[in-house]
Amino acid sequence: MNDIRLTPTREDKFAFGLWTIGHIGRDPFGDPTREPISPSDFVNGLDEVGAWGVSFHDDDLLPPGTSASERENIKKSFRKALDDTGIVVSMATTNLFTMPCFKDGAFTSNDPQVRKFAIQKVMNSIDVGAEFGAPTIVFWGGREGVEAAGSKYPLDALERYREAMNFLVGYVKDQGYRMKFAMEPKPNEPRGDTFLPTIGHTMAFIETLDDPSMVGLNPEVAHETMAGLSFYQGVAQAIWQKKLFHIDLNDQKIGRYDQDLRFGSEGIKDDFFLVRLLERTGYSGPKHFDSRPYRSEHGEGVWEFARNSMRNYLAFAAKAKAYDNDPKVKEAESLAGVDALANETIGKYSKALAEKLKAENFDYEQLAKRNYFNERLDQLAIDHIFGL
Amino acid sequence: MNDIRLTPTREDKFAFGLWTIGHIGRDPFGDPTREPISPSDFVNGLDEVGAWGVSFHDDDLLPPGTSASERENIKKSFRKALDDTGIVVSMATTNLFTMPCFKDGAFTSNDPQVRKFAIQKVMNSIDVGAEFGAPTIVFWGGREGVEAAGSKYPLDALERYREAMNFLVGYVKDQGYRMKFAMEPKPNEPRGDTFLPTIGHTMAFIETLDDPSMVGLNPEVAHETMAGLSFYQGVAQAIWQKKLFHIDLNDQKIGRYDQDLRFGSEGIKDDFFLVRLLERTGYSGPKHFDSRPYRSEHGEGVWEFARNSMRNYLAFAAKAKAYDNDPKVKEAESLAGVDALANETIGKYSKALAEKLKAENFDYEQLAKRNYFNERLDQLAIDHIFGL
Amino acid sequence: MNDIRLTPTREDKFAFGLWTIGHIGRDPFGDPTREPISPSDFVNGLDEVGAWGVSFHDDDLLPPGTSASERENIKKSFRKALDDTGIVVSMATTNLFTMPCFKDGAFTSNDPQVRKFAIQKVMNSIDVGAEFGAPTIVFWGGREGVEAAGSKYPLDALERYREAMNFLVGYVKDQGYRMKFAMEPKPNEPRGDTFLPTIGHTMAFIETLDDPSMVGLNPEVAHETMAGLSFYQGVAQAIWQKKLFHIDLNDQKIGRYDQDLRFGSEGIKDDFFLVRLLERTGYSGPKHFDSRPYRSEHGEGVWEFARNSMRNYLAFAAKAKAYDNDPKVKEAESLAGVDALANETIGKYSKALAEKLKAENFDYEQLAKRNYFNERLDQLAIDHIFGL
Amino acid sequence: MNDIRLTPTREDKFAFGLWTIGHIGRDPFGDPTREPISPSDFVNGLDEVGAWGVSFHDDDLLPPGTSASERENIKKSFRKALDDTGIVVSMATTNLFTMPCFKDGAFTSNDPQVRKFAIQKVMNSIDVGAEFGAPTIVFWGGREGVEAAGSKYPLDALERYREAMNFLVGYVKDQGYRMKFAMEPKPNEPRGDTFLPTIGHTMAFIETLDDPSMVGLNPEVAHETMAGLSFYQGVAQAIWQKKLFHIDLNDQKIGRYDQDLRFGSEGIKDDFFLVRLLERTGYSGPKHFDSRPYRSEHGEGVWEFARNSMRNYLAFAAKAKAYDNDPKVKEAESLAGVDALANETIGKYSKALAEKLKAENFDYEQLAKRNYFNERLDQLAIDHIFGL
Fold first, then answer.
1. Where in chain B is CATH 3.20.20.150?
2. Which CATH architecture has domain B10-325?
3. D57 labelled catalytic
4. Rounded to a whole number, what is the distance in Å from the CA of D43 to chain C's nearest CA?
5. Which residues fall within 8 angstroms of residue C162, CB to CB, at 6 or more apart?
């Protein structure tokens, strides 16, 4: 493993949100442990560590209540930092969760005024995103859910969710913005149960929109993992359905509060297969880290965290390549029949095929005798992860 | 609560699978504790407890290796029991998991012969289902998954899964059977990670089929609950997307092995809202119990279990009705704004509406002051569950 | 169920912490939704809803940085409210988690100065508790844990934890305070992995202290439930080991962030058996609610939440009594052999008994035939919960 | 990493149970996929792969119903295989879960005859263990639990559990066997909720026995992990309390059915720290693998699985050594203050120390400014795991 490249280049398209490395370290039980980082300092920091893109919530860049002139100043200095460094805005998103007015939801609040305000806030956020050339608008519906199941009839909530998404697609098209939307599922937290809790539920929902082609997914490692679902398998289905528009890389233990750990630091095997999948399918969007340093870190520690997030991705990519080139892996894959799964089983239905199939005689006891050597294949993945 | 009806009628459409009440009580660590019940005894038992329908896997009715004449005898006596009792066959399904040949999957086995055998087995199973008038064929892909992530490229697996489903839809149409398919998701067990792990992933997959109208869902309480997802919310989305073709009622604790507990015995609040939803939306399919008595029960104990499964459904239905008629609930719903969520937020996109919305001025601090009284509303659900 | 008492009396010993009903509704993703309630208003509110006791963290009552004279004023007005209402201080505890200096732990911080400060802070907190007559000091070691496993050698951490507990027991004895300590376990959040994560780990730790008799448990529904453990069974073991010194009642779904839901609103069956156990064993400590209203509530809503927490306890207590008096329950218990488990199996070891037992011939096939009727017994619990 | 030793020697003390590699591949949904391996073939297989010890349940070696003469034959050929190979019997245990008579529990069955039979069965199992020189008897109380909470009063169950353990300790002492007992906790499966669900609960229970010194723990990776608890931290507490008598190595995802995966194949980071802990504390007992090959494997595949279980342990041990010798690790540990946690905070209580501490003035804002560099330290663990 001597020749692994562990230092990022712009071509790697690594991106970080302002709220990630810049997280001030507040948690439900503790006060902030870090000072905020200004957007322009943040961009300069990203440049130094070799990242390529930056993303933001509307309120990260332009806090609510900022005056018009302050807004211009902030945007000017942010723009300057972007220009100076070549860092691109890889995505923009809207904060529909911090303000107390969203305590009952945003697009699905029971209060019609809140719902309208939420849509307006996204329109403004889209405008800012467009101004900075963001190609993707992410939607995380963190407050779209319930603690008290009786407080929202879920069929109504889904209607309102759809209405808002359709309206906003209409707005983007009307404005002529070259943007797409990426929805980010999460099963719970901060709400007891979130609508559209997983990659699957969200993809199914998207199919009901007026223009499904405009909307895809922004899946996040931590969010699927909270529910014990394989992020790797979920992303694979999203790719298969051509809905992987953006991705949030971080890490998480199953069945816990949202941890947003450093990518590669926890679910190591699933992460390895994820990176292999992204590389293999030629995913060309941002590799966006939605994680935050432990609360114990500040100063250089948070930038080290950023470097190591990218380092782990690159390590996995190199290991995945080595795995795929390893003759022992090829042999084990062959014994497992991995490639054979790419071949059609029988093809498109016809009466003739059906009759032929029905007449076949399968020796199912013999078929049961096959040894798939999956233990061997899995260990080879471990060996490559371990660098053995 | 004096006048609650707790005894089932045929109109309730309660159904049980042969493998449920009839489960012999084997578990991964213990030998069987009960004798098998013959299909015809089973039907007679269902009749006595007031059920309406019976379902079966092909192998439950006709074990592999049964000779042609035995098959006819079994079917004849099963038919007789159905005729004698008026019990209907409410669903049929295919066992693609018990035989050792399926250890690597059925539709997604890496072995092409196993894949073909699996499709053939379903065709035969469909024929038996058709013979007994089953309106729905359930697909539980219990072995479609992996322990070793490297053993199947998931995009290939999804292709093969789709190919099989398309082929079988073709078969049903070609045969002129009046049937639909219902897919049953499960996140894991017996495989480490299952393809199509949730209601959402399965609905998204169905949209990619040649004829999505032929295929819906058979969601199961235990399966969504294992992943900590709200079954109630998931079923609501399935109804909203018109995909609730069948339902499996049982119970389960989050984050555990598949428990298949008696419906109503564990996730009481979620169950209450589920029954309310089914009743409210006029779900007219079978209420099918896919559960099994504790291993400590046999004889009359297993039939008591069946009675209590139905009893709990009826109790929830009565409580849901009382809840919906309770003026205190109506008042709390009004304070929470439940009905207001049914109203359009803004409507279909138009430039004029967008401009108008952008110009609006929202007093978000004022909007934050609203008290939604969700604690009150939730407690009223508890009160009704408690019969207070 | 006509004659159930659902209104609390002082004899019920219901208590609430200042931080519970008074929680301002901040969460990791949202700003506060409620105004703080002053300690004296809080006490008056408790009086109105019929509670008996109040508890506090040192910082709830006397925020860090409060001047000496302000402290006296706060204490005076708090004392007055207590005297006016008869509300007692049922417990005091120390906040060792909010201040940023505790980001690496308190008793187990790697920084020796932080460790000393933590012990000093508890001593001061104990003094305030003593001043108000608190019979119990609770210890929640929310920050005693790690995200990075390598950051603390766990054997050292446990040594430091023990050292701190021993020192503080020494302090209480030396001061002549009539107090005991109650440790509150939690598996994770806000730290990735907490030391002493469960009731069991904490009881085992207590046995290693210099004076185990001074230290017991304050188990919390939500904390055991997060890990999917039965709170009911855990509390039973604590009672069996004479370590239930205090209890925190609330509610929670398995495998989630710390929800602190209204007691009785989620894990209904486990809650029912818990209350039955507390009543049956004559638990005489405070019934302390460590929960908080949904973020959507304020004003009268939060007091309704308090009322309903107590109401649910009382409802369970009444239902438990009815269950225990129900002849059908007695019969089912008899069939299940519940009482027979109270009888000795064989008694204390002696060679004679051992020889006699070894010579016995057990017909294990016959023993397997027993029907335990657990489904019936469990359904009777459901029936009583449902008020049927 | 060129010079890592990945091939086991006898000094490594790797052991496997007859039921592990020899598992026939039955699961709750599928029939067996493998032939049984005879005990003597098993021992020879272990010898070939370089293991040191073998363990067994009474019924693995001597199935129930085996005649006296058959028993002698089995034992003779097993003894021969041990003698031929030098493989030692590292542990023996009793199957108190497979027989249907144990469906309601063994030591805690409500049926007194079952309880007596269970104790007798363990006495006989201990005799066989003694005959083969097993130094440890493991107790896994897989059936000691409930699905229906009302079916056992837990205080009675704990009494009976204690009575049985005390009796059996008495038996071992009386017989003069040089053995100790190791209890193996598990939170659930096959029972809904198990008594003594975790390392902690079991250690606490042991303290209540007549002779706690005779009884320790056999913790298992999969069992603690099912509940989302850190196995590493749990084992550390067991070591700290001198109760680590035996250990079961395997792997598992959180919140799932009991997976018994190959050690090192899933929870990689926790496994790394676990092996480091075992090596560092000089754990000298067996490294016992309680895992089983995927159902897809047979023949040479199951032995490859065994080899890779040991290989992963050795890889972790080598990586742990390299980590501990790495100057970058030492530097990061120093910045994190790892060693400083080994130093006393204040020492044993005295009035003088207390007064001095109370008088100290801590600048808690300054203390909060420390950067612990835990991200760096954690990444160094990842780097060593990755072999970078």
1. 10-325
2. Alpha-Beta Barrel (3.20)
3. yes
4. 30
5. C205, C208, C209
* Residue of D60, D104, D248, D260 marked active site: D60
Nearby residues of A54 by Cβ (< 8 Å), 6 or more positions away? A15, A16, A17, A18, A42, A43, A46, A82, A87, A88, A89, A90
From chain A, which residues contact C within 8 Å (Cβ)? 25-33, 97-100, 102-104, 142-143, 147-148, 151, 188-190, 192, 228, 253-259, 261, 294-296
Q: How many residues are recorded in chain B?
A: 388
- CB–CB of B43/B75 below 8 Å? no
pTM value is 0.98
User: Token pair for residue D48?
Assistant: 């070939």
Residue B3 has pLDDT above 80, yes or no: no
Convert D9-44 to b/e letters by CB count within 10 Å (16 or more is b): eeebbbbbbbbbbbbebebbbbbebbeebebbebbe
Interface test with A, best of C256, C259, C262, C304 (most A CBs within 10 A): C256
The pLDDT tens digits of the residues spanning C111-169 come to 999 999 999 999 999 999 999 999 999 999 999 999 999 999 999 999 999 999 999 99
Nearest to A239 among B155, B160, B188 (CB): B155
**pLDDT tens-digit series, residues C241-274:** 999 999 999 999 999 999 999 999 999 999 999 9
Residue A4 confidence (pLDDT): 85
Distance CA(C250)–CA(C287), nearest Å, equals 10
Q: Are B88 and B53 in contact (CB under 8 A)?
A: yes
pLDDT tens digits along B262-293: 999 999 999 999 999 999 999 999 999 999 99
Q: What is the pLDDT of residue B36?
A: 96
Partner-chain residue, chosen from A228, A353, A370, that has the shortest CB–CB distance to B227: A228
Could you tell me if C62 and C74 are in contact, meaning their C-beta atoms sit under 8 angstroms apart? yes
Cβ of A28 within 8 Å of Cβ of C190? The answer is yes
Interface test with C, best of B263, B375, B388 (most C CBs within 10 A): B375
Interface test with B, best of C272, C304, C379, C380 (most B CBs within 10 A): C379
Instruction: List pLDDT tens digits, range B85-138.
Output: 999 999 999 999 999 999 999 999 999 999 999 999 999 999 999 999 999 999
Q: Quick one: closest CA in B to C301, which residue?
A: B373
**Whose CA is closest to D180, among D219, D211, D152, D147?**
D211
Asked if the model's pLDDT at residue C1 lies above 80, the reply is no
* pLDDT of amino acid C3: 72
Q: A236 and A247 in contact (C-beta within 8 Å)?
A: no
Inter-chain touch C378–D228, beta carbons under 8 Å: no
Cα separation of D91 and D101, whole Å? 25
B197–A201 C-beta distance less than 8 A: no
> Which structure tokens are listed for A86?
């070549």
